Amino acid sequence: MKRTKILIMAVLAAVVSCTQHRTTTVGTTPEIENRVEKLLSQMTLQEKIGQMNQVSAGGDVANYADALRSGQIGSILNEVDPVKINEFQRIAVEQSRLGIPLLVARDVIHGFHTEFPIPLGLAATFDPELVEEGARVAAVEATAQGVRWTFSPMLDIARDPRWGRIAEGSGEDTYLDAVMARAMVLGYQGRNLDSTSMAACIKHFVGYGAAEGGRDYNSTYLTERQLRNTYLPPFEEAVKAGAMTLMTSFNDNDGVPSTGNTFVLKDILRGEWGFDGLVVTDWNSMGEMISHGFGTDRRDVAEKAVNAGVDMDMMTFGFISHMEDLVNSGAVKVSTIDNAVRNILRIKFLLGLFENPYVDVEAAKAVQYAPAHLDAARRTAEESAILLKNDGILPLKPGARIFVTGPLADAPHDQLGTWAFDGEKEHTVTPLKALQARFPGKVSYVPGLSYSRESKPSFAGVTAAARRADAVLVFLGEEAILSGEAHSLADLNLQGSQSELLKAAKASGKPVVAVVMAGRPLTIERDLPSCNALLYSFHPGTMGGEALANLIFGDVNPSGKTPVTFLRTVGQAPLYYSHNMTGRPYSGQTLLADIPLEAGQTSLGNTSYYLDYGAYPLFPFGYGLSYTTFEYSGITLDKAEYSADDTIRVTFTLANTGKYDGTEVAQIYVRDLVGSITRPVKELKHFERVALKAGESRTVEAQIPVSALAFVGLDGTKKVESGDFLLWVSGDSASGESTRFKVK
Ligand code: GLC
After folding, report:
1. Which residue segments constitute the domains of the chain, with CATH numbers given?
2. What pLDDT is stored for residue 212 in this prediction?
């Protein structure tokens, strides 16, 4: 009896502590809040303002010593040497009046030293558990060196592949983005806070990915309804997951730069969501409000930013230069400063920095590139690859003589992709290295091109060399620097002479497998005839080569799905699956080539499409092939009509009808047929990975709360509107038969 009683007490204590722990969005506790208040009460105005100042710290620590001793710096970024980080912390903790430790930050975007696929590749896995595991690996490696804050995950929904930062997010879909946001926040911060917890920073708040023309930093024009129905939900999900910090975005939306936008930073983030974490600007985004024409000088934009809800200034030095004057003049209240400093101190207490500001430099070395980390990176790269074409030559048979060519075959730096600050190319396993190690003496190699932008008049040597092999592998794509921040493109075709190189390989008459490593979905329609199979691998990271070898030779069956729409031509941008129906949906109208001479003009029967490229993409969202085939059947709903507080139980049978074991990402889409505002033709509401042996079939039940169908309608409130709905269960956003149901 006693043992049972002890057990019950232990369980109750655990429940209470969890409940007690999660009293606010960042999970502060009364004990932490007491410590925050006590410390705040001891601080001078100058020391408070110092906490609101973040400095990019490079070079000699001595250059910052005076500012640290006088409490003028609250956070540093871009220092990752644990010896130097300990030096920074020692001055702040042991030589300043109050000994407040620094928040040490870094862009740990898809791994620290062990690089995982870029975030667009992470999304292509449709595997949040695996993505969380990868974020945990990144946190373990980075925190070991003293980095306790990452500027990740990036939640910017991107529907225009001209935008270089499409590489850094989870693609075009609100639901997928929200699922990945939660996974990365939990991975970085850990399910329980400890010394390996790295504060997540959800960014860029908000709407940055809708930059007009896909040109980075450009203006956005999102209505409040678009913000609430498409762009804000992933951030809200991340706040619910406990994200500790948030970063404002560079863009002005509807004329208001995010760094000075009270509506999003206070009314929504604090007022509606109750966020009690830290808000930091993007790099000098406060200062850029002068360029935007939203402020006259640094004093003015500092006032606007802090009164809009910004807590910490990254690299404008507006707070440290003008805040004392702004407070003394009454332009900024002391209470505003106190709230900002509370948000900063709260994160420092939650991370345990006051108890343990230093790291063990020797221990830090042991965790970098740990075998388990490399294994996780390889598994993620395997799941992130998308099979877009296969006429049956894949998987290749071991023992075949392989000819390898292409600028990405042995590109250890570029394979890591954008925002791989701490990825070291010496550790990269390229496809060439992996294949040579696996099939010694069976692999011949001619680069063909030495980098993706290179142009060459001919490739005779390549064709000749390819003829001597049984199969040809051509690795194409983008150098890492061609995507990411400020790297937007107006032409999305393969750069340089890559398409010609692929044709030269095809001219050998041997089977050709193209592998594309890129930071975005390129327009590859013209290249498809030049290959028998095509694997798309968004810059796959440190272990990409081994992963691709395993996929090409069938050790692993591809399961990746497109997290963004692949365009036929850049002129189709923006094009995404969850578009509105419009009053004239495309229904197969005449294309350019079929228009008769002197055709008469008419307004009848016209629809929304391009005369030259129609209305459909090359590959839709959620698309990806496998070495096997899957069949959906028996799709049934447990009811024909639901109430708003119901749960929809969807049952379907999925069969592996091919001869390879494989995993299918089963997707469930819903359409709200009639609403107070026009609604998308489809919206992803659920997905799950289903692993099936060859010949196996399984009945799957998915549950979707009817509340997931809620949206902000004409009256500005978020609710489920009654009426008729359609539901699809399929392997991508463009296929499957619909089932009808009602919400009363
Ligand atoms: C950059 C990026 C942001 C990054 C920050 C710090 O300009 O916009 O995503 O976290 O500066 O490097």
Report:
1. 21-362 (3.20.20.300), 385-552 (3.40.50.1700), 630-743 (2.60.40.10)
2. 98
